[in-house]
Amino acid sequence: MTLAFVTTSYPFGTPGQEAAGSFVEDFALELSKSTPVVVVAPALTAGIETLGELSVVRFAVPRLPLSLLDARNPAHFPAIVRTLKAGQRAVEEVVAERAVRRLLAFWALPSGYWALRAARKRGIPFSTWALGSDIWTLGRIPVVRGILRKVLREAEHCFADGIGLCGDVQRISGRECRFLPSCRRLEAPRQRPLSSNPPYRLAFIGRWHRNKGADLLLDALERLTDEDWCRIECVRIAGGGPLERLVLQRAARLVSAGRPVQMLGFVDRRAAAQLLDWTDYVLIPSRLESIPLIFSDAMQAHRPVICTPAGDLPSLLDQYRVGVLAPEVDMNAFVAALRSGLSLNPTSFGSEFERACGDFDVSVRVHRLLSWLDEAPSPS
User: Which residues, in sequence order, are CB contacts of 21 under 8 Å at separation 6+?
Assistant: First the structure.
């Protein structure tokens, strides 16, 4: 069986900008140990890369990352149209030329739509793996919601990277959706033990986007008192995205006030692993989330989190007890969570990490995915 991954996000260009695509690469590499895999993904220039049983076919698009294209913004229409046409053409060509027997779309839109059309032409099955942005953002646009429902209903299997998100997929599609969390392999081993006494090191790694709460984090840091900051050695903020100007301005304001804040920009997975090894707490101030990839990264690095109650984070912290949960998704609540974390010993969470790490292991999840794909289609 040749399996084709259809995705809008896969590592290419500036490290860290691929967002969820970093874990798609790990899944593709792991799956290629069992079966030939071809990945169809966007890039600024077309090309083909091959590594053993894994091939990556790049189709050219006008701009990256595609996650920043907004279907509600008329100025983005030309780039969206060109991207949709290029992606559909590339998927159909790969399916025809490489004897693909099954497609797996990352994510429901537009990848799932490309996979659906190619699957119809060749008479082969396709499955989808939904992200929160598919359901909570694109799913709110009336015409797009109808296309989304069609993709989900016609898929052989539906997966989603959040527990609550599975329920939302089921409500839209009227069919079963299985929970399959995103996770990736870190490239550096744990070396530095957690600090047992203040001052502590804090780190944020993620897109500077409203959904990820980069602005909420900076609001919270500005509200911390001199006494709070005496318990902080440094806060490092890594990433980039649409809130870059605001984030850099607000961070500069903190630095000018004498606060130990450092900005790192985008980081690749090795740099992310090094930053996780450096920190004592991972900050997750998300407003809208299913299960953020940085959560599984933190579990692998054995680093506790300080987070908002977005998406599945409350149930995860209830299950694993690996950090501090804010009572609400707002700035004051996150300030309270920060103060709570700073008053605790980060090493006190240690006993829970091994169990959490095992549940977010790439090999385990890939073997689970293969077993599900081999099952009979779920009912629609």
Answer: 7, 9, 10, 11, 41, 106
- Provide the edge-to-edge strand list for the sheet that holds 178-179: 47-51, 54-60, 37-43, 3-7, 102-106, 126-130, 158-160, 178-179
pTM: 0.84
Q: For residue 288, give the DSSP letter.
A: S
Q: Give yes or no for a contact between 171 and 356, defined as CB atoms under 8 angstroms apart.
A: no
Inter-CA distances, 180 with 214, 284, 311, 350, Å: 26, 20, 15, 25
CA pair distance 282, 25, nearest whole angstrom: 23
pLDDT in tens, the chain (380 residues): 789 999 998 887 555 555 567 789 999 999 999 899 999 999 999 999 999 999 999 999 998 777 777 777 888 899 999 999 999 999 999 999 998 999 999 999 999 999 999 999 999 999 999 988 888 888 888 888 999 999 999 999 999 989 999 999 999 999 999 999 888 888 766 789 999 999 999 999 999 999 999 999 999 999 999 999 999 999 999 999 899 999 999 999 999 999 999 999 888 888 999 999 999 999 999 998 888 889 999 998 999 999 999 989 999 999 999 999 999 999 999 999 999 999 999 999 877 888 888 788 888 889 889 889 888 665 55
- In eight-state DSSP terms, residue 336 is H
Q: If you ran DSSP here, which 8-state letter would residue 76 be given?
A: G
